[in-house]
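Materials and Methods. Structural model of Catalase-related peroxidase. The 305-residue sequence of Catalase-related peroxidase from Colwellia hornerae was retrieved and submitted for structure prediction as follows.
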Amino acid sequence: ANDKEVVANDFVEIFEKLGGKHPGYRKAHAKGLCASGTFVPTPNQHFTGAALLSNGELPVSIRFSVGGSNPNSDEKAAGARGMGMQIKLPDGSFHTFTGNNFPVFAGKSPEIFHGFLSTLLPDENGKTDPAKTMAYIQQHPSVQANAMWNKTAKTAASFANTEFFGLHTFYFDQPNEQKTKFRWTIEPNLGVKTLDKAEAAKMPTEFLADTFAQQLKDETVSFNIVVSLGEAQDSDIDPSQQWPSERPQVTLGTVTVNTSGSDACKNTNFDPNMMSAGFTPSDDPVLRMRSPAYAISFGKRLSGQ
Ligand code: HEM
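The predicted structure was written out as tokens:
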């Protein structure tokens, strides 16, 4: 299939077409909840000398989010939930982790992801055509696993009970010139909890902020940042393909959340390519597309567009 080459602004435009124009908000994941806490590292041999892991406890700014460009979206609905996390190092640099609650992305390239989104646009009569989407998925198998996830996805019970997947591959440069190839997940220590349709129907439109605040009062809300170590045959450019589950896992550290509900994350750009010393992004074209798309969205929302 021929897929038209896309640029970052095409995504900002299609998000606005799909979810409406909401000036001043993020063009994706428009609805969010700021939180803050601390990161305590677990130094290990695969990340020798990483500044991220050798400076003890570090402050973290977090934004949990609901997918889509509607800032008033219905939290009863199943679907994408996200987390952006920025850990601040003593030298003023940041390490960012920005992930979603699904284990595979909707397409191996920005072109395919954009083509898929295009099938969700309503026609001139305001009607969408599920058959068109189905046909696209059949012609573009790399969308399939994510579409399957979406079909069976349940409503997140709380951000504190959601697992977030980094999806892309990253590298860490060891002092011995070896590269550690990895993907990360952020795992809730309170366990993953979802609501089935009947349970979700009983909830108000908005409950995520209150549920989270209550959990902060009652218990310890924390997440482990866990990485899978990749082998040569594991794709480092395709976020629509999961790595085998038996890859060795290493914990980078634990994030404990202390506060929620401020405006502290409003003017942050959780660009997943902004990482601390020694870490580098892979050549995954989806990962590469994220920086310019986030930058356009960031500039627009800061200027009230
Ligand atoms: C070509 C692919 C993608 C495009 C074009 C895209 C685009 C965007 C844009 C424009 C924003 C708003 C940024 C801002 O205003 O600060 C955003 C936010 C977000 N995206 Fe993506 N995204 C892509 C892939 C992904 C992937 C693969 C993930 C998960 C691994 C992801 C997770 C998130 C999250 C969690 C947020 C909210 C960040 C925050 O709270 O500030 N995105 N995305």
